[in-house]
Amino acid sequence: MGDDAVEQVARRARRAQRALRAAPGEARTAVLRRLEALLVEREAALLAANREDVAAAERDGLAAPLLRRLALTPAKLATLRDGLRQLAAWPDPVGQTVLRRELDQGLVLRQVKSPIGVLLVVFESRPDAVVQIGALALRAGDAVLLKGGAEARASNQALVACLRDALAREGLDPDAVGAVEDREAFGRLLALDREVDLVIPRGSSQLVRHVQASTRIPVLGHAEGICHLYLDRAADPAIAARLAVDGKCDAPSACNATETLLVHRDFLPHLPAVGAALQARGVELRADPQALPHLPGAVAAGEGDGDTEYGDLVLAVFTVADLEAALRFVADHGSGHTDAIVTDDAEAAARFLAEVDSASVFHNASTRFADGYRYGLGAEVGISTGRIHARGPVGVEGLLTTRWLLEGAGQVAADYGPGKRAFTHRDLPT
Amino acid sequence: MGDDAVEQVARRARRAQRALRAAPGEARTAVLRRLEALLVEREAALLAANREDVAAAERDGLAAPLLRRLALTPAKLATLRDGLRQLAAWPDPVGQTVLRRELDQGLVLRQVKSPIGVLLVVFESRPDAVVQIGALALRAGDAVLLKGGAEARASNQALVACLRDALAREGLDPDAVGAVEDREAFGRLLALDREVDLVIPRGSSQLVRHVQASTRIPVLGHAEGICHLYLDRAADPAIAARLAVDGKCDAPSACNATETLLVHRDFLPHLPAVGAALQARGVELRADPQALPHLPGAVAAGEGDGDTEYGDLVLAVFTVADLEAALRFVADHGSGHTDAIVTDDAEAAARFLAEVDSASVFHNASTRFADGYRYGLGAEVGISTGRIHARGPVGVEGLLTTRWLLEGAGQVAADYGPGKRAFTHRDLPT
Asked: Which chain B residues in 230-249 lie under 8 Å from chain A, judged by CB atoms?
């Protein structure tokens, strides 16, 4: 795709977004319902396109976990349709009033939710992301440009066609969903900061960092998930073992998996049982000198342990002298994604929740709960460890901004100020 | 200041911020009250420091509007103290609950407001910005590094000392407020994306663009304010004239000043009266060929008119065939700051408010109302035309992020899913 063609795709998305946001909310809802119907109608064709991708990936020797992500199944399609039904059932967020305030008699301010504009989303392997992210974007009134992985090309094309056809059949401009396939086109889009409002990379931390370094457009995403589970001196040993096993083993490659176990030194006598439960699930433990004697079969932690997102059945184990030291460890070694404390001491829990400055902070719950679906956001476009805009699991709210609407009767600013009219600044019900 | 010294300032701010956010809300409130008291105690010294700056600036031939911004007066100090009293009277925002949701029995999620972290603020001329921005940052639990203009050096130093002393006297770490004075130190801070979380440039659009191009840290600000006032076919001629005069003349150098008058062709017969009112206030009109015959004394619009933030008593006048064309003009030539319609046609007003995608959109009110103080935000750190995070006038809310807190009783993610436990996802009162 030449530079001009790429710019055209972005410009058409901008134009289509203007129409999409101006359309009534029912039109966007109808698109979501139509998309759900198309996923039923075209199920056989979608699965066939996906089989092509999977067969090619097998020939290319793609690793088993990636093959599992790549494969579409009737069950995965059913889950996508569930998500679409949920999104369609929600009230349309565009135009919802956040704040209403009388500035003076007959001068009323409203802050309302509004689409961000044109999103550029880059993702790897999982073709279901096309539907999840595309649907969230349309619910928010945003246009979206999608760049999927080459290994999912046929699947992505078939799913993008569903999105575009759903728009067209409901009388909306299909260019609100666009696709770019090659890396050069994607690189070109990263330079178009007047045409693209937000970039969302979904994939490895290398991908996220590459995108952040390559664009002046705001980027929503997380570079790393180095999540801690802190076993306090007052931790319940059974809960400690359950949460460690779930955090590490439920989905080791997920960004919300636990990577480092922090252990209060008074808890060390209970550590062998926790370690055994982890080892029974095949976890390799890399422990600091204080923890090592309590973990038969563990190896000594070396360079990088405690600062690594393993994404695998490997867990670092570090000992701390007290809660204060645990807080400092998390601040110094964490990635601000998700950190949890296990304790029966309400005061220690309260302090951990108040002071750990991560997107998600848990007490007696597995780090694996940090997820848009589990939080009840319907779906997620990703998990943000950025500190502005959306933070943590990002659902439709993260794809919205606000505008300020002021309705008056000819008022001018020069009439207000010291010795002149005063503002009433009275909040009104929304 | 050497590179190491600059990094030390940033690291100390990070450490001080951890203590500031962990402190109870009353401590931050006490700092604001203490600051107010210090501004009274030290008024003579502050004014003397400022006289030094003003005298030097006069010798250097600083332009009159800049001298006015530079000068501190007892009235300006009184206004600052009013603002501090207001901020201190507000409930502490840190930890406020935004959302509360039961995920399952005994598993409750809360989204709470939280400080962003370390802010870097660069501003020109106005020393009062030190107190306004510093106080908003402290209210939000953020540390702030301030880079003021060289012309206000003595004033800024004296005011920064007030902020630091207020922190110290309330037992908090004064390094939560830091100052850098030279450009090299500021440039170095822009590179420290692990130590600084948000950059806020307050000044000319050149400054904002320079900052945006020089850092990977998120930037909150507006590059330009090209605000439109659209006189619809159903505009009340008296309101049209009042709003045009206020929008252009109340503060021509402000970013919310009206720069372009859009005129529905059916309104052209009323344009002479609007033009005369503007010319009576010394405004130079630059009109397109359709409007020109209706504006005796106007000049023909040339290159750049209609796309320029004049910041002066100059106004572009362009004619449009209908509302649709006005919407397109604003989309193509506006900067997304503030745009207003004058009309008695409720339908036209509703469409303008719904479809103009600017941070502030007004009906029958002057563009000059786009301001944090007028919106009732207490004060503002600036006006953002960015599309993520805060948009429009930014008060304390724009200096906050959120965190997700989950409290459970040992739940694990593996227990939930198809055929297993289901989430309840029941919203609870906040």
From this structure: 236, 238-239, 242-243, 245-246
CA-nearest residue to A327 within chain B is B18
Q: Answer yes or no: is B424 within a domain.
A: no
pLDDT at site B2:
77
- Cβ separation B375–A116 shorter than 8 A: no
To the nearest whole Å, the CA of B58 is away from the closest chain A CA by: 28
A364: which chain B residues are within 8 Å (Cβ-Cβ)? 407-411
Residue of chain A whose alpha carbon sits nearest to that of B237: A410
Q: Is residue A106 part of a domain?
A: no
The verdict on A231 and A216 lying in the same domain is no
> Among B330, B387, B399, which would you mutate to test the A interface (most chain A Cβ atoms within 10 Å of its Cβ)?
B387
Whether A23 and A122 share a structural domain: yes
Q: Residue A213 pLDDT more than 80?
A: yes
pLDDT of amino acid B204: 80
Examine the domain organization and report whether B216 and B231 are in the same domain. no
How many Å is the maximal CA-CA distance in chain A?
80
* CB-based contact B362:A406 (threshold 8 Å): yes
Q: Rounded to an integer, what distance in angstroms lies between the CA atom of residue B19 and that of residue A361? A: 18
Closest CA to A296 of A274, A312, A316, A318: A274
Per-residue pLDDT for B36 more than 90?
yes
What is the mean pLDDT of the segment spanning A131-155?
Answer: 96
Structural domain containing residue B246: 227-369
Q: Show residues of chain B in contact with A362, CB under 8 Å.
A: 405-408
Please check whether residue A370 touches B, CB under 8 A. yes
Are residues A362 and A389 located together in one domain of the fold? no
* B213 and B345 inside one domain: no
Q: Which of B242, B248, B335, B357 is the best residue to mutate to test the A interface, defined by the most A CB atoms within 10 Å of its own CB?
A: B357
| Residues A189 and A70 both lie in one domain | yes
ipTM of predicted assembly, 2 dp: 0.94
Of A246, A369, A388, the CB nearest to B406: A369
Distance CA A154, CA A163 (A): 15
A1 has a pLDDT exceeding 80: no
Q: What is the mean pLDDT of chain B?
A: 95
Does residue A361 lie within any of the structural domains? yes
Same domain, A170 and A304: no
- Band (A382; pLDDT cuts 50, 70, 90): confident
Question: Do residues B294 and B146 both lie within one domain?
Answer: no
Best residue in A274, A403, A415, A426 for a mutation probing chain B (most B CBs within 10 Å): A403
What secondary structure letter does DSSP report for A422?
Answer: -
Alpha-carbon span A24 to B84, nearest angstrom:
43
| CATH at B151 | 3.40.605.10
The pTM for the full model equals 0.93
Token couple for B260: 């372009």
- Using a CB-CB cut-off of 8 Å, the residues of chain A touching B114 are 357
Look at residue A353 in the predicted model and tell me its pLDDT.
97
Residues 6+ apart with CB under 8 A from A399: A115, A116, A119, A136, A137, A139, A140, A142, A381
CB B405 to CB A362 under 8 A? Answer: yes
Task: Give the number of domains in chain B.
Answer: 2
Residue B418, pLDDT score: 80
* pLDDT computed for residue B224 by the predictor: 83
Q: What is the DSSP pairing of strand B400-411 with strand B284-287?
A: unpaired
Q: Is the pLDDT of residue A145 over 80?
A: yes
